[in-house]
Structure formats: structure tokens, C-alpha cells
Recover the amino acids of this structure.
């Protein structure tokens, strides 16, 4: 999916993409922290209809509901600011249980509540990896979660 | 003292009434402030003798605050990105709209320095009025809106170069001094833009503070010092203020904007009032017809230049009309420019510009609104554009 990003000097940024139903929808992210959800669906192809406006908190709530893995990226910064949130790096040992399997196979999120933010393969970093991302010995997973969750995750991956 | 306080108080209450009235009819208060200033002061219904000195001084600061806020509004990164993408549109905007004022001045038999000032008056759209209109009319998400905002940004950068040029020319400077002034201004703008990345964090640390009071005093103090210094070296004080705004980095700029906004509103209102104070309504009559003609022609050229800019971004016919209509409004900066000319003895520019801004301050918002209603044969933009 292609997201078009347009600068609104002095105001913020407009993101725009086409949804499955064929409509063009978008978000106007204002510098003051408000978000407008917009849709192009009238007879005029350039006139946006503002569906609703959200403040920062409401936008965060919506993003949570939609549960985009994208949000996980942002946790990397948040872990420094949110109490109780920690990040860690867990190695995949060569020949261990998940060497040669996929990230989805670990079911890490389901079992421990921990999110994998990135997979480090030598010099290459794969940010926001998909469940289909292959794992091999020597890789490291960058994870975000609670301290106990991360301990559990270590157990799962090393067990 | 008592009279001063009463007069100032009544003045502010009258302004409050005017703002309420302006908002009720969905117009910018700027033309109302100008009209109020005309009605008062020299040759008006009441000579505000006790406050006029104060209002004048406050107005001087108002100009600086207008430009400081303008600089705070945009980041250097936004400027450069816009310049890269929309330079053509900015050039067309200049080439279509500035000559209108210049030729009009020429036809009216003004000196060329006054013509140059008039060129600026018809060229620069009102960022304040246009940005507010886009919000009020719910057009922030529209596809022509980035173009409209980009044209405003480009006009604003151009002002940083145009104002010093105008100041030198009005002071009777020759070609060499004018070129030097433009080169210096350009150099300063580039320097500020380049150095914000390196110096920005330091400036942010010095100016940013938890207390609003500290932010207010520090930013205001820095602005006044820089503006005063640029004035002392015969450049435009307004440009100094603009550059200060531009140099202040993102998060600090946001704080400064919210802290300074009420102050800007107050002092800018004083500026528009004081501009009107110096003009007696009766002296304005011979300028009404030329101002009307100027308003009509320069509205048409803005419609074309705005439409061109939108077309370049692949916007359809209706959207092009909206873009042009939105940019018709002239306001604060036309008055700033005319004020410089009037102060240099070209009172005719001040008179013409005040009538012009009153007209376009009212016609502009109407143009923006009705650009969406006039029947355009429903032409759709090509798919995907």
C-alpha cells in the first residue's frame, strides 16, 4: 500500500491512501497534536470531507484499537518514558528451537505480551518485522514489554 | 493620565466589539481595524490625542510581532522543501501580481520608489487571513491546500529579501546599496536556515524555559534587540524579527507561538489602528476608485497565479478556482509595506493601500468562499491526479 505524504507548511502533514473500497482517505496531522480524518468522496476529486477531528489522546486510542505493528516502532522511544515499559535484546542461539523458523512461530506476543520491534541480522536491521520474517542462529530480537514479560520471552526463545 | 486610561480602555472595548462583528460576518478583523483607525485620529470623528502616541509605539512593536510569528510559524526545513517543489508557482505569483501594483503606480504618476512599494502591496497575500480561511472553510485536507500554503510560505521568504530592498530604495539608496542590501538579506536568510540545525538546540535551550513568563521575556527581548540592531544598520527591523522567528527551533517555537499569540493580536491591532490614525477619511476619497480598480485586477491575477500553482499539482478545475480565490485576500503585509512607503514620505501609497486592503480584506474571504459555489462545468481531474 502506498501512503502519500504531503507537507502542509505551517500546519502539519497530510497522509493519504486508498482503502479497499476504492475510496481515498487521509489524515491531516496538525502540528498542535490534533488529527483530522478526511475522505474524498464527493463529486469534486480535490475537496476533502472532514469526517471527525481527534485530539492526541483520542488518536492514540484509535491507533491502539487498530493495533498497527507500526505503533510498536514508536514504543522504542516510549520505553524510555513510560514507567514499567522495558526493552531488551534477545539472541537466537545457533541450533536452538527457532533457528530456521519464522518469527510468527515463536508466538511471542501471544505467550508473553512482548512485542518484537526489530530483528538484527548481523549488520542488517529489519524494523517492524512481519510474522513471516525468518529467524536464524545468531540473529537478535529487539523486544519491548514489561520486565516479567521479557523474562518469559527469554525462556520461550532459549527453551 | 486618567484620560489616557479611559481612552485606551474604550479603544480596546471598541476593538473587542469589532472583532466580534467581524467574526459574526465571517470576515477578518483587519479591515475593520483599519476603518476604525480612519474614523479616529486625524480628521476623524474623534481625535484620540491622549493615546495616539502610545498606539503608534505599540503599533511599531505590532509589526515586529507579526513578522516574528510568521518566522515562528514555519521551520527552515519547511521553507527549503517548499522552495524545491513550488519555486515555479512562487515565481508566477510574483510575475503576475507584483507588476499590477507597479503599473498602477506608474499610471497614477507616482515615483518609481512608490511604484515598487505598490508592487509589494498587490503581490503579498495575507498569510493570517488565508490560513484562517482555510481552517474556517474546512479545507485543510483538500488537495489544493498544500499549494496555497506553499505559495504563502514562498511569499514570506521573498519578503525577507524584498523589505530590505524597499527600505534602501525608499531611503534614496542607489543601485549598489540596493544590491548590497538584497545580498545581505539573502545571505542572512540562508545563514539562519543553514545554522538552525547546529545552533537551534542551543538557542532552544537558552530561550526555552518551564515558565511561560521566561519564554515570553526572552523571546521578546531577543526579537527587540535583533530588530533594533538591523534597524541601526539601515536594514528593515521587521526582517530582523522575522529571522529571529525563523531561527527558533520547533518545540521552542511552538511554546513561543502560544505564549506570544495574545500579545501579537493586541499589538497588531494597535498597528492597524495607528495606520488609520494618520489618515483622514476625507483625503481617502480620490483613492477609492483607483483602489477598486486595483482590487479587481489584482484579484483576477491572484486567481490565475493560484490556479496555475494548483494545476501544477494536478488539481482539478474546481480546486484551482478555490486555490486562486483563497489567495485573493491581502492584509497585514500590504499594510506593513505601505507603512514603510508612507513613513518615507510617499503618503499616496499609504492612502491607496489602506483603501485597497479594506476592499480586499472583505472581498478576499468572499472570493475564497464563493470560489466553491460558482458553477464550473463539472470537469473531473484525470483519474489518479
Amino acid at each position: 500500500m502506498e501512503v502519500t505524504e504531503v507537507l502542509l507548511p505551517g500546519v502539519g502533514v497530510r497522509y493519504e491512501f486508498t482503502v479497499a473500497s476504492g475510496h481515498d482517505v487521509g489524515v491531516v496531522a496538525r502540528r498542535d497534536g490534533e488529527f483530522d480524518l478526511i475522505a474524498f468522496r464527493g463529486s469534486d476529486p480535490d475537496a476533502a470531507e472532514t469526517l471527525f477531528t481527534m485530539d492526541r489522546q483520542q488518536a492514540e486510542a484509535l491507533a491502539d484499537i487498530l493495533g498497527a505493528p507500526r505503533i510498536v516502532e514508536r514504543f522504542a522511544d516510549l520505553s524510555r518514558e513510560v514507567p514499567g515499559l522495558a526493552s531488551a535484546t534477545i539472541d537466537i542461539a545457533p541450533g536452538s528451537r527457532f533457528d530456521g523458523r519464522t518469527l510468527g512461530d515463536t508466538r511471542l506476543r501471544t505467550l508473553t505480551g512482548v512485542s518484537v520491534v526489530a530483528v538484527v541480522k548481523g549488520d542488517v536491521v529489519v524494523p517492524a518485522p512481519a510474522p513471516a520474517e525468518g529467524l536464524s542462529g545468531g540473529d537478535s530480537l529487539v523486544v519491548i514489554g514489561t520486565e516479567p514479560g521479557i523474562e518469559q520471552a527469554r525462556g520461550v526463545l532459549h527453551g | 493620565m486618567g484620560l489616557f486610561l479611559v481612552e485606551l480602555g474604550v479603544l480596546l472595548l471598541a476593538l473587542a466589539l469589532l472583532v466580534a462583528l467581524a467574526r459574526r460576518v465571517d470576515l477578518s478583523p483587519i479591515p475593520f481595524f483599519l476603518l476604525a483607525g480612519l474614523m479616529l485620529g486625524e480628521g476623524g470623528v474623534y481625535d484620540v490625542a491622549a493615546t495616539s502616541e502610545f498606539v503608534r509605539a505599540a503599533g511599531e512593536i505590532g509589526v515586529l510581532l507579526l513578522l516574528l510569528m510568521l518566522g515562528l510559524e514555519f521551520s527552515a526545513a519547511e521553507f527549503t522543501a517548499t522552495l524545491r517543489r513550488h519555486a515555479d508557482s512562487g515565481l508566477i505569483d510574483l510575475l503576475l501580481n507584483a507588476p499590477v501594483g507597479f503599473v498602477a503606480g506608474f499610471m497614477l504618476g507616482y515615483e518609481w520608489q512608490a511604484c515598487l512599494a505598490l508592487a509589494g502591496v498587490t503581490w503579498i497575500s495575507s498569510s493570517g487571513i488565508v490560513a484562517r480561511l482555510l481552517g474556517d472553510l474546512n479545507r485543510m485536507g483538500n488537495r489544493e491546500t498544500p499549494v496555497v500554503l506553499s505559495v504563502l510560505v514562498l511569499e514570506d521568504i521573498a519578503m525577507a529579501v524584498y523589505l530590505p530592498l524597499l527600505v534602501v530604495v525608499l531611503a534614496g539608496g542607489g543601485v549598489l546599496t540596493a544590491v548590497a542590501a538584497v545580498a545581505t538579506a539573502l545571505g542572512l536568510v540562508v545563514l539562519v536556515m543553514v545554522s538552525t540545525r547546529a545552533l537551534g538546540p542551543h538557542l532552544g535551550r537558552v530561550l526555552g524555559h518551564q515558565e511561560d513568563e521566561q519564554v515570553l521575556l526572552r523571546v521578546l527581548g531577543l526579537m527587540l534587540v535583533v530588530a533594533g540592531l538591523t534597524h541601526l544598520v539601515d536594514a528593515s527591523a521587521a526582517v530582523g524579527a522575522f529571522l529571529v522567528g525563523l531561527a527558533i527551533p520547533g518545540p521552542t517555537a511552538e511554546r513561543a507561538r502560544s505564549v506570544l499569540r495574545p500579545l501579537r493580536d493586541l499589538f497588531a491591532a494597535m498597528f492597524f489602528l495607528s495606520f488609520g490614525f494618520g489618515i483622514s477619511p476625507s483625503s481617502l476619497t480620490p483613492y477609492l476608485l483607483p483602489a477598486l480598480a486595483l482590487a479587481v485586477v489584482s484579484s483576477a491575477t491572484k486567481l490565475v497565479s493560484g490556479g496555475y500553482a494548483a494545476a501544477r499539482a494536478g488539481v482539478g478545475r474546481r480546486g484551482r478556482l478555490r486555490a486562486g480565490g483563497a489567495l485573493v485576500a491581502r492584509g497585514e503585509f500590504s499594510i506593513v509595506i505601505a507603512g514603510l512607503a508612507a513613513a518615507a514620505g510617499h503618503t499616496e501609497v499609504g492612502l491607496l493601500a489602506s483603501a485597497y486592503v479594506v476592499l480586499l480584506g472583505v472581498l478576499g474571504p468572499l472570493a475564497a468562499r464563493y470560489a466553491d459555489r460558482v458553477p464550473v462545468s463539472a470537469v473531473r481531474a484525470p483519474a489518479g491526479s
